[in-house]
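Q: What does the assembly look like in three dimensions?
Context provided by user:
Components: two
Sequences:
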Amino acid sequence: MQTSELQWTAQEQSIAKAAFGKAYKREIEALVQVVRDQASSLSSTDDIWRLHDFLSARRHELDGKYDERESALIFVFADLVKEGWLSLDDLQGLDASKLSKISALTRMM
Amino acid sequence: MQTSELQWTAQEQSIAKAAFGKAYKREIEALVQVVRDQASSLSSTDDIWRLHDFLSARRHELDGKYDERESALIFVFADLVKEGWLSLDDLQGLDASKLSKISALTRMM
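A: Here is the predicted structure of the complete assembly.
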């Protein structure tokens, strides 16, 4: 799959950017909720460092995940769809071959 | 100040250990409260990573701070008294020269 050679029109770039923002917002909102829940039941040192470890892991994951390079977009979107942060509907407007690749990847990952 | 050459009797070691535990418990309880407060007002990505940075810094600080080596105890206790996690009363039973060194250091730090 020569995804790195796919061309993204200005309109597609705009759709991709909006979808990124939407997914990130959803993922952060869910993270905020998890952190609040964990924090409300904190009581020991272990609990605190467990929260710290959790945040370290999530930060590392999120830093690497939202890769906006065009060569990565198909894979990033497949990942986000697979994890439930985006639906294929959020990506409508991309050309059919991209949507089809994203959809295929979500079933392979 | 030849603190590294101070001898600690078994009874003093026991007092030191209890004081360490007391200070650590107090400090962690305060930290739990701060983390809960911060977590309850989390809303953005920045808030989450600010909490993460805060926990990273506190963990690093706490890991280094509670140094139980006898050569470090006088300084550690002075630090804990200075910060309010211990009072000199919590250290009663240590010999007078140690208490006096701790007390002097809290005024110098």
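Follow-up: The mean pLDDT of chain B is 91.
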